[in-house]
Structure formats: structure tokens, C-alpha cells
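Progress narrative, work stream C.
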Amino acid sequence: MKTFEFWFDFGSPAAYLASTQIAGIESATGARAVWRPMLLGGVFQATGNHSPATIPAKGRYTFVDFDRFARRYGVPLRYNPHFPINTLLLMRGAVGMQLRDPGRFPDYCAAMFRSIWVDALDMNDPAVVGRALHQAGFDAQALLALSQEPDVKAALKAATDEAVARGVFGAPTFFAGDQMFWGQDRIEFLKEALQ
């Protein structure tokens, strides 16, 4: 079966929007998504890139575009007043779920994206993260402990290093084979590459 990679960080509104389209991409192309969590802050640091939000006019316009895409996709999106979110804990949780409980990994990802980009929660606060996890049916203490395990930390660092080595500079980034597609607004190009 054909596959494509979806490199993401929960702190990216574009990655959230892209995540809502994964099932449609799979249905349209017959390819299966391989979800690849990475730490966007680490990618930015390694590549010298910055969030569009660091340039006020560009940041405002980008969120206007995100609202347009949310309406086109028929999905909810709220600007998070706590943005940017330090996602280190959340992304370690994603890697930990992939390693320890892959069957619940999709639920974890949906809960984290929803908490930031639909509920607009302050996911910089570990207590808020704990409540969001509990509300989504997860054992918050177990997941917080999992995020501190050395192999989980190492796996997230290795994934982020791999992303940078492959040319990733932002989120979301897709790969179809060796072809890279950056941004949720390039999904149609990804679909063409997967046909």
C-alpha cells in the first residue's frame, strides 16, 4: 500500500487544519498516512525559520487565511490567545503514545489539536494539559510520566533531527516518497503526487 508522511506539531494551526483532511487524502488516493510528530521549535531553531506570527502583518493575514480554509473544510478553528504554545510536553506525549499505545494515538492527536485550536486552552499550563487529557479519556498522570521517559525524549529528538535532515522547515510537511510538500495549502499537490 502507498503511504505518505504527515510531519506535524500541535502548536501549528496549519498542521491542525491539515490533520482534519488526512482521512480525505487517504480516501482520494488509496494511500495511508504515517503520522510523524516532531518539535517545531527544534526545527525552527535548527533551520533559522520563524513562525509567520512573529511578523505582525503576516501573522494577522495568515490567520485570515486559516479561517478561510477552516470554512472551506467545514471544521472549527479558534485563534488561541495563548499562542505560541510550548508543545514539548505535548509532542513527547505523541511520541510516547506511538511507542506505547498506538491504538489510542489518533485519539490523543485529535484531543491535543482540539484543545489548542478549537477550545483555545492554555496548553502551556501542565494543569490545563492534565484536565484536557482527563476529559479526553486519558490517564493524565500516566501520560505526563510517559513524556519524561528517556526513550520517549530521545525518539522525539531523533524525529526532529530527521525532519531537519530531510529539509523540513515548518509544519505541516508531507512527503510522498522523496517529494516534499510544505503547508496545508499544498494538499492538492500531494494528492496529485499520490495518484
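Work stream C, second folded protein:
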Amino acid sequence: MPDIKVFLNNNLGYKLLAFSSKNSKKFIEGEDFDNLDQFLETNKEAYVFGFLTYDLKNKIENLESRSKSRIDFPGFCFFVPEILVKIEEDNSYSYIVGNESRVNNKIVQDFLRNRLNDQPNAVELNEAFSKEDYIANIEALKRHIQEGDIYEITFCQEFYNENAKINPVSTYFKLNAKTDAPFSCYLQLGEKHLISGSPERFIKKKDDKITSQPIKGTARRSNDPIEDEKIKTELFKSKKERSENVMIVDLVRNDLSRIAAKNSVTVEELFGVYTFNTVHQLISTVSANLKKEVSFSGVIRAMFPMGSMTGAPKIKAMELIEKYETFKRGLFSGSVGYIKPNGDFDFNVVIRSILFDEATGQLTCPVGGAITIQSDPVKEYEECLIKVQALKDVLNE
């Protein structure tokens, strides 16, 4: 049976479901970008699915990760699927890779059948930080901003359980029903699982155009339509949220300029307000024309980790993240996506996600937010609770 699965769901139309196994010859994991380039060149006429973890930063810049991870994923993992199906809105499906055999149909149908599994979860989440400790860390980071070390930093905390038992696929479908997020995905690598309700695109390439859509700015939803519209307007007008967003837009523009054709970097949309089932978000869109000689790993070296998950300046922000956070981010703040045979690709940002290890029972749900000089530590703490609420709901219902 396949022990690698990736399900990509934009909740706007069709979905992609890919299967493979770790003993496949068309599978690579590790941290060496040269090996990745060679793998992608060898398989350039195939669909390739995979992920990047946040801690690849250490291979891109002179950085290190000292904290421990509850769930260790390799720096990157990519594979050519043995089975790849396109799933329509009515859940009919067709094969892109693989034959419509009885065995293959059973593999696909067993996965999709989890949509109907309503077995309840009973997983309580613990906080790695007390509210007081979290606030103290925000105050310390604001002092770094006052001293000119950074302008903005994305500081995250961990919600966790050390003895969890869940059905990861059915939990994914529950989360997706709740969030309806455009970069939702499920990933399995052996006994390790990612259950993601991500609303954020990291990087997309179509022909020679490359696009990034950083999110900075979050507000809760209200059941009252009038109040909900008011919250949405306040988010759009918020000086603090706009400040957070524009600093990351500038960082993304700078990152893109390293791989872009001259004078091609464009801010297509600034401060777009997008509404999802559980939150409103402030999203900007930055694009450029990619230089023809830049490889996939060249794009990653220039852009990764994404600025929305670091802060600015990027390297100093990542050094302070390592100092103040208490966990190794791993696949959280990383990216999952796929590369087409024509070289186009699309990758998300791994946020609003559950990471789960079946073998150990470890489960973690990191969340965070951008800290600027205008940040109110109590409100930042409350924003974390808003972001983790959908995850708490599906883990304990």
C-alpha cells in the first residue's frame, strides 16, 4: 500500500490526489539542493509532488535550528506519483497517472471514503506558553524593534498533545469543511501526517510569470452580518495591519527581484481583504517575470522561507525566532505543492495546520502572528487563539 499521499484542494473546483511509496525509485528526501535539482531534471517530464520544511533556511543562509521538534520531517521530500487522480466537485475522478485497475480504484476510494467518517476526536491542546510568558516574549521582541534590530517578526507558539489518537484523513476532511481554505492540503509520509487548512499561497509559476501572495492581517468573523462587515472594514483601514502587510510586501518584492527579469516586479494588489469561513485576511499579490535560467531550487533559495513567516529583515528575524520560540518549526512555515511536466508549479504556506505522528502520538498545532512596534501583546495573544480555534474544534468534536 502507498505510504506517501498528497491531497491538494483549492475548494474552487477539482482536486489532485497523489500516491507513492518511500521505496519508489522516483522519490527523494534530504537537504541538498543539488540532489533536488538532479532529481527534478531526471523527472522533468513528470508530475512531481512534495514539500519543503522551514529549517531548510539553514542550507540557504548561515543559520541553525537548536530547538527540538515533536515531529521530524526531512528538509524536503519530492516524488513522482505512481497514482495521480483528478477529482471533480461531484467526487468523480479520472486518472492522470496510473491505470484504472481494481487495486488502484480501491486505494483512491479508501481515501475518499474518509469524508463520511464522523468518528469524534477527543484531543485537548496544551499551550507551550502561558499567556504571561507569551506577553513577556512579545515585549522583548518589541524592544528589538525599538533598538532597530528588526522592523517586524512573525512569532509563533505551539499548541500540542503528547498522546493523541485521531484518524488523520477524516480529521482533514472535517477541517476542510470548517475552513474551506484555498490552499488546503493533506500529506502523509509514512506515519507522519499534515492536516492543513492553509489560506496562503507561497509561490506560483505559470509560463514565465511568478506570483507570491503574502498574508498579513487577520480579523475574526461574526455571525451578525452587519458586525461582520464592520470587522472587515476595520481590518482594511487598520494602520497596524497595513503596516504589517506592506513591510512583508517590500520583503517579497526584494526576494523576487533576485530572480526576476529587469523591471518586472509588480504589486498587483495591495491590502486585498479576503473572507474565509473562520477569518478575514489582508492579502497582497506580488508578481514578476522569471529569468529563464533560474531553476526551481533557484526560486526557493531566493524566496524561502516566505517573508510572511519570518519578518524583516529576514535573516535577523530568523535569528530572533530561533532565540525566542521554544520549538523547531519543521514542516510548519514550510510549503507543500506540485510541479507540472511543463515546469509550472504552485506551493502553499503551511499554516493553520495540524501535524501528527501516529507512531508516537505527538500532535502539534503551531500558530503565530506578525509583531511590529504597534503590536498590543494581549491582542496578539488573542489573535493566536482565533487562528487555532478551528483546529481545536476539529480535534475535540
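The mean pLDDT is 95. No further action is required on this item.
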